[in-house]
Amino acid sequence: MAELILLVIVVALTVSGAVATLRLVSHDGYGLPEVGDRLRHVEHRTLADV
User: Fold this and answer.
1) Total-model pTM
2) What is the C-alpha separation between 34 and 23, in angstroms, rounded?
3) DSSP letter string over 1-50?
4) Which of 11, 20, 31, 43 is close enough to 25 for a disulfide, judged by CB 3.0 to 4.6 Å?
5) Domain with 27 in it
6) How many domains in the chain?
7) How many Cβ atoms sit within 10 Å of the Cβ of residue 37?
8) Cα-Cα-Cα-Cα dihedral sign, residues 34, 39, 42, 44
9) How far apart, in whole angstroms, are the C-alpha atoms of residue 17 and residue 40?
10) What are 1-50's pLDDT values in tens digits?
11) 1-11 in b/e burial notation, b at 16+ Cβ within 10 A?
């Protein structure tokens, strides 16, 4: 059970880090905002499941 909780935390941190990176890149005009939107939906679902 502890391993599952740890895995969920690691995945959530990884996804939120990817979203933050995409936000920074997209603010510079080189990113793909639609990819960032998809990742935000995934992040929201993952955190809501916990």
Assistant:
1) 0.43
2) 11
3) -HHHHHHHHHHHHHHHHHHHHHHHHHHTT-S-HHHHHHHHHHHHHHHHH-
4) 31
5) 2-49
6) 1
7) 13
8) negative
9) 11
10) 889 999 999 988 898 888 777 776 655 555 455 565 666 655 555 555 55
11) eeeeeeeeeee
